[in-house]
Specification:
The chain is α/β, with parallel strands linked by helices. It folds into 2 domains: about 5-75; about 80-155, Translation Initiation Factor IF3. The protein is built from 6 helices and 8 strands, in the order E-H-H-E-H-E-E-E-H-H-E-H-E-E. The strands form 2 sheets. Strands 1-2-4-3 form a 4-stranded mixed β-sheet. Strand 7 and strand 8 form a beta hairpin. The longest helix has 12 residues, at about 95-105. It is globular and about 45 Å long.
């Protein structure tokens, strides 16, 4: 089964003083080991990060605007956290533009604190030289059994940035 990013927006539930925990857990129960859970919330959900961390979910948080936090949870344990985007099904140049825009928007990519993992339909031949020109390293592999290419984009993090 192809990996996926399951997107759940609970901001309206939180604004209405509701409790989305059960909905979150139901969403998680339908995911495979290679899937990513992406949660939209009105605040950084530190208690949820702790609860899911005890269940082997690693979470990273982006504040994209006031009262809009996006948290991605993954079970994959890597040397650095990776933010993931799914570019499959997009027409060129959308995957490249989307990837470069995100790299410019989030300073933790440029510092090397985070890596960016993109899921594409094919090897992004025009993106790779752009990444190198901007000082990013990358690794890619073609997931033959899932019919897509995974590209991991990163900078070496020395902790001093």
């Amino acid at each position: 089964m192809p990996r996926k990013i399951a997107d759940l927006d609970v901001r309206e539930i939180l604004r209405a003083k509701g409790e989305p925990f059960q909905l979150i857990m139901e969403t998680l129960s339908g995911l495979g080991p290679d899937d990513v859970f992406q949660l939209h919330a009105t605040f950084e959900p530190i208690p949820l990060l702790r609860v899911l961390g005890r269940q082997s979910w690693r979470g990273i948080v982006r504040e994209v605007e006031p009262e809009h936090f996006i948290v991605q949870f993954s079970k994959e344990q890597t040397d650095r956290p990776y933010w993931r985007i799914d570019n499959r099904g997009l027409e060129p140049p959308q995957p490249m533009v989307r990837t470069l825009d995100l790299l410019e928007q989030e300073p933790r990519f440029a510092s090397g604190e985070w890596g960016l993992e993109i899921w594409n339909d094919r090897v992004p031949a025009f993106l790779l030289p752009e990444l190198a020109e901007r000082g990013y390293d990358y690794l890619y592999d073609e997931m033959i059994d899932e019919d897509f290419v995974r590209v991991r984009i990163f900078k070496i993090y020395d902790g001093a940035n």
